[in-house]
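Record type: monomer structure entry
Structure origin: computed from sequence
Chain ID: A
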Amino acid sequence: MATPLTVGFDLDMTLIDSRPGIKATYLELSARTGTYVDADAAVTRLGPPLEEEIRRWYPEERVAEISDVYRGLYPEHAITGSPAMPGAREAIAAVQATGGRALVVTAKFEPNAKLHLAHLGIDADAVIGSLWAEAKAEALREYGAGIYVGDHLGDVRGARAAGALSVAVATGPCTAEELRAAGADVVFDDLTEFPAWLDRYVAEGADGTEGADAAEASA
């Protein structure tokens, strides 16, 4: 029997626009702790682990404590205000329509990632949290993912570390040019382009890059 197609997806700024919810959470964190956090700046740097942003505002000895406070505030302040990205549901459904599996592999705290997906009705086959950049390869290899879709240079690195095709969307902090320069195999403006590309990928039984390049050229 053929191995089912398995595709991994990043979460923040790939499947969901988490900026409104994350901003609200940082504002509440700032109010609770009495420490200024530039929430508008923080949401321009989404992708890396939470602790990297917390270190900008709090001393190192408080990073673990404050990160836990943030994660505790997150469900109340971030979930309902964060919409799905255009094409997110359709991208997941396109993978599953082939008989394949759609995973979410994210640096976000896993329970909070699952809350987002449940709220938005995005039905992934598995959700793996707290993995960033090359560490994402652990989950991608475990599940046999041949494709990883993300918006950040760290997502490209994760895909390459796993030996997976890197499909990037320029919906996060990184430009299409930056994603290509980092080694992304396919780059789209957003996920609305993904289902048609996946159809070609499955039909060709290859890496799909030729079809994706043709789609870009005709856009």
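Annotation 1: The chain is about 50% helix and 10% strand.
Annotation 2: The radius of gyration is 17 Å.
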